[in-house]
Specification:
- With 470 residues, the chain is mainly alpha-helical.
- It contains 20 helices and 6 strands.
- The strands form 2 sheets. A 4-stranded antiparallel beta sheet has the order 3-4-5-6.
- Helix 3 crosses helix 5 and helix 6 packs parallel to helix 9.
- 36% of the residues are buried.
Length: 470
């Protein structure tokens, strides 16, 4: 029976260093080929390994390039790979993308869907059929996507794996860039003493959240880019509701904050577009930048990270021309189209405006009746916590802080960090420990927020009132 060291030695013949070889229960099959191997000593050791062992070795390789090098170096590995490439590629992708693989698959399926709207500024011809497609997409790829991959191993062909890997590199690049951008922000003014959390980049938990919301942002930009015709009430936008019901309300809050950052990047870059008259179009810049943030896509927008200090994750030099061509097309269409409604207008200022509160009410909150016939909505987070999970309660606390409008209350014990989005950006991604890291807490205790939420309700007019009043 071959030892683990002998397998490593066989791999060294091909200059392949596996991340970590699996444990050896599976090498029981080696005894079956021992006699044959002794009769063919001229074969390199790795050529005598059974197929199942080669597949396990290939699943442990660090990336797809190493896999391709391995299969080119070993005819046996080449044959084994093509015997069951889905298992091998899923193993490599699962280790690289981790829990983001399901939403990465959803992003790829959205990008390749024949029924998707064509960017920029094209939409589905048949609204009813489009609603059906969105509902099926959400059921198939997003609902419960944190728990399982909804596609079989055979889904992972080499072509799909390369596309998943390439876009994940883009997401990782954006994550590092945003982490660096956030770390350079300061509180300023009266909040300077509590700005030290910003002098640290996002930790791994916060980066995990950023990566996921970057994927969600890309899916939204592909499938739900704009609404045409007269503005519709929020509660009639079924596609939007079906999509976001698959995710927690604080993830929607994170999406809105990410859109604000992307919008600020695009707004600064608009002035660099060719033939863009900043004087005549100055009033249109905020609106156009919101549409660019919503609809441009991460790969085309990666050029916005030019000029950042050296990032940990390298990306090919972004195409400035590609960005300019898409941006100019969107700008021209935005000026000529009168009835356009873009959802990125839901920016969170000092507190959630009624538009965002309506989203919370329509999608996530439980509807209740009252004795006088009016409708109210429960703010009790217990039901939401049971359905949606997170790595720690930091984002939940931020969401409750927003919904309860703590920044408008006469409370003296906490500085209003959460209520200063232009000075403290992307705080919805912070883990709870970061909020508690200062000598004076920057956020009320979660138990206080949850208790307060249980004592209040949201009205149809998007007002927060004590439950006893109803």
């Amino acid at each position: 029976m071959r030892s683990r060291d002998s397998i490593k030695g066989a791999l060294k013949l091909y200059s392949i260093t596996p991340y970590s070889l699996p444990s050896l229960p599976f090498i029981m099959g080696f005894s079956q080929v021992k006699a044959g191997a002794e009769a063919h000593q001229e074969l390199p050791p790795i050529e005598a390994l059974p197929v199942d062992v080669l597949l396990d070795i290939m699943r442990q390789l660090p990336d797809i390039k190493s896999l391709m090098d391995f299969t080119k170096a070993s005819p046996s590995a080449f044959r084994a790979f093509h015997f069951d490439q889905g298992i091998v590629l899923q193993g490599i992708l699962s280790r690289e993308l981790g829990p983001h693989l399901p939403v990465a698959v959803a992003r790829l399926e959205a990008a390749e869907a024949e029924w998707r709207p064509v960017r920029p500024f094209k939409t589905a011809v048949d609204p009813e059929l489009f609603h059906q497609h969105i509902a099926e997409f959400c059921r198939g790829y997003l609902d419960g996507q944190e728990e399982e991959i909804r596609v079989p191993p055979s889904y992972f062909t080499l072509d799909k794996a390369l596309k998943l890997w390439s876009f994940n590199d883009c997401v990782l690049y954006w994550t590092e860039g945003l982490s660096m951008y956030v770390s350079n922000q300061t509180g300023g003014g009266t909040f300077r003493w509590c700005s030290t959390p910003y002098y640290r980049r996002f930790n791994e938990i916060e980066k995990h959240r950023v990566k996921k919301v970057l994927y969600l942002s890309e899916i939204v930009s592909i499938l739900l880019p704009v609404r045409y015709g007269p503005n519709q009430p929020v509660d009639q936008d079924v596609d939007w509701q079906n999509f976001w019901a698959c995710f927690a309300p604080w993830e929607f809050c994170q999406y809105v904050e990410l859109q604000e950052v992307l919008c600020s990047f695009h707004q600064q870059d608009l002035y660099r577009l060719p033939d863009f008259d900043t004087v005549s179009r100055r009033n249109a810049v905020p609106g156009i930048s919101k549409i660019l943030a919503l609809q441009m896509g991460l790969e085309a927008s990666v050029t916005l990270l030019e000029g950042f200090p050296i990032l940990e994750r390298k990306m090919p030099k972004p195409s400035r021309k590609r960005y300019s061509d898409i941006a100019v097309q969107i700008v021209k269409q935005a000026e000529s189209t009168s009835n356009i409604s873009y959802r990125s207008s839901m920016c969170r200022s000092s507190h959630p405006p009624h538009r965002i509160m309506s989203e919370y009410k329509t999608i996530w909150l439980e509807k209740l009746g009252t004795s006088n016939g009016t409708t109210i909505y429960s703010l009790d987070p217990k039901r939401i916590k049971q359905k949606y999970k997170d790595l720690d309660p930091g984002p939940l606390a931020c969401w409750l802080f927003d919904v309860l409008r703590y920044d408008q209350r006469p409370w003296q014990h906490y500085p209003v960090v959460r209520g200063q989005p232009r000075q403290f950006i992307m705080t919805a991604f912070w883990r709870r420990r970061r909020w508690d890291s200062e000598r004076i807490p920057l956020m009320p205790p979660l138990a206080d927020l949850e208790s307060d939420a249980g004592r209040h309700v949201l009205t149809e007019d998007n007002e927060i009132v004590p439950r006893m009043w109803t």
